Structure formats: C-alpha cells, structure tokens
Here is the input.
Amino acid sequence: MTTVQTQTPPRSTSKQISRFLRSREIPVASALIVLVVVTATINPLFLTPQGVKDLLLNATIVVILAIGQAVVIITRNVDLSVGSILGLVAFGTGTLFAVYPGIPIILVFLIGMAFGAVLGAVNGLLVTIAKVPALVITLGTLYIYRGLNNAWAGGTQYFAGDRPRAFSNLSTDTIFGFPLITLLAVVVVVGVAVVLAYTRAGRDLYAIGSDPAAARLFGIPVTRRVLGAFVASGVLAGLAAVLYASRFNAVGATTGTGLELDVVAAAVVGGVAIFGGSGTVVGAAIGALLLTTITSALTALRVDKFWQQAIVGVLIIAAISVDRLVSLNRARKLRVSEARNV
Here is the structure.
C-alpha cells in the first residue's frame, strides 16, 4: 500500500495568493466580467467584434486620463483640470495640422505631450508653492484652461477631414483585432505601474500620500515628487488629447467638457484611495473600463441615461465608503496589535 504525500504551497506563496484575492482590483474586475456576461446574454450583439472594438475605443481615452489621475490622487491630491487640458491640447493638435499640413505625426504627439506637461506643471507649482489644496487650485485652472480654449477656438472646429488620413487611421487600425490606440494605452498602464512599484520615485508617492509630514522627516523631496505627479498627469492628458483628435470627428472649444468627473470616478472606483497612499494604475484602468462599459451596456439594454449617471454615482459612493471602512478596520487592528505588544 502506497501513501500519497501532498505538498502544501510555501507560506510565502499562500500569502501572495491571499494578498492578491484581497486586492481592490478583484471586486472591480469581477463586476466588469459580470456586467459583460449579463449584457451579452440579454443582447448578443453587445460582444460582436465591432461591439468589442467600439467598447475598447470608448474606454481608451478615459483609461489614459485615469492613469494620470491615479498618480496624482496617490499623493493625496486631485487634478480637476484634466478635461480642460485635453480640450486645449486637442484643439492645438487640430491647429498644428491646419497650419503645418505635412508635420510628422510623431512630432504632433511630442508637442501635445509637452503642451500637457506645461499645463500640468502650472498646476503642480501652484499647489506646491502656494500651499493651497489641489482641489481649489485645479478647480480654478479648470476654468482658466477652458477659458483659454474658448478664446482660442471661438467658433472654429477642426474635423477629421482636416487631418492626415494616417493620423485618423490610428483609431481604426487594429493588431490581432485590438485597436492600435488601445494597445498604446495598455503600454502606458504597464509602464506607469512598473515605475510606481519598482522605482524609488514611485514608492515615494505612496509615502507622501500616506503621511506627507512623515515623508518629509524621512528626507523624501515632497515638493518635487508632487510636482512630478502633476506633470505626469499633464503629459498623459496631452497624450489622450492627441488620441482624442484622432478618434473623434471634431475638436473645438467644448472638447473634453465634464470629462474630469468621469476620470476621477474611474480612479476612485478602481480602488485608488481618495485620501491618498494606496491604489494602483491597473485598478484605475479597470475602473475606467468598468464605467465606460456600464454606459455602453445600459445603452445596449435601452436604459435611460439618467440611470446610467445614477449608477456611476452609486459606485463612487460605494468605493469611497468601502475605502473608509477598510482604513478604519486596519487602524483598529493596528491598535489591537500594539496593545498586545505592550
């Protein structure tokens, strides 16, 4: 008679699995999967190749903006001006092609990202130098940037026909069935996730968000890091703006209006703590995909637009409430542990 010995996984592996299952991204990803399955069951046309392509394209811009927003929120700040930055840079993109028809597309991307970096740097400098809450500063720059765009654009709009076909094709070309600009968004997600997880600058952002005063005591350059977070948000908003100009038919004075609320919602729903110090850009990307999928799914199910907005509002409240409860629970466990060690 032989006995079969079973090997239990190493404790470290068990801890990693347990940590993964407790991660904030799991509930969001699960909700996304359930939503897609239910919608596809009721309306099979929802997951046709064209339907999936449209779904990914609709999410791409918000995903890139949510990544930049997540970087800022992790530092216990927020950037409400991203919609206005996108509008300003998108109209600038249309202007570039109108003034310089033969301009290389890669140069347009670089100029757009540099333009976004400058606008993001203005936000960062005002927040770090004036010591005014980012909510107030970026609410002000939201209106300033929008006003500049209105003054610059006026009634002018640039349409798809005003841009090179190769530029417009960026949002229609696919690789293995996936839109090119969506694959670009995936590269951005992976790149920023690696920076946050494996570089000192990335870890510093989490430390700042957890406790800015303690971060200063440990020698972390808080001002420089927070400024860098706003610049990064501006760069990604500039990138999203150029892709927006490629994706949509027209850009003008109203481009990007109200988009900042969707972006903040995506980051928060994706598990980025509004109080700073925790969350991932992967979660923010999944949150953006979930919110855009909700809109598409409810539209496919012919649900009134009011309920679409109401559901997004419920998700935001739920995400913030859960984050608060988790924080209180961790604080309670820490107090109990300290009491036992005394």
Observations:
- Residues 305-341 form the longest helix (37 residues).
- Strands lie at 158-159, 174-175, 178-179, 250-251.
- The chain is about 75% helix and 0% strand.
- The domain at 42-323 is CATH 1.10.3470 (ABC transporter involved in vitamin B12 uptake, BtuC).
